[in-house]
Design a protein that fits this description.
single chain; 88 residues; mainly alpha; 5% strand; Putative membrane protein insertion efficiency factor; cell membrane; Membr_insert_effic_factor_YidD; membrane
């Protein structure tokens, strides 16, 4: 299920996204965010994160930098590394 979604997002970014120009308030753009979310978190959680992001994108949104959240395993590795550094 993950790969058809990735294919669709890449097709959208290639064919439809350039027609809109630079209108996105966030960085990365919503389509780039969706693609990265699906690649990082899988189909279900990635689509959920992308849908949340699209719902936040409206004319009154402040916008700005909004990265895809890390996976739980990456957070645990980073926390573990931080504990090792502080323990030394």
């Amino acid at each position: 299920m993950k790969y058809p979604i990735i294919w669709f997002l890449k097709a959208y970014r290639f064919a439809i996204s350039p027609l809109y120009g630079q209108v996105c308030r966030y960085h990365p753009t919503c389509s780039a965010y969706a693609l990265q979310a699906v690649e990082t978190h899988g189909a279900i959680r990635g689509v959920y994160l992308a849908a949340r992001r699209v719902m936040r994108c409206h004319p009154w949104a402040a916008g700005g930098y909004d990265p895809v959240p890390q996976t739980h395993s990456l957070k645990n590795v980073n926390q573990h590394r931080g504990e090792q550094c502080s323990a030394s």
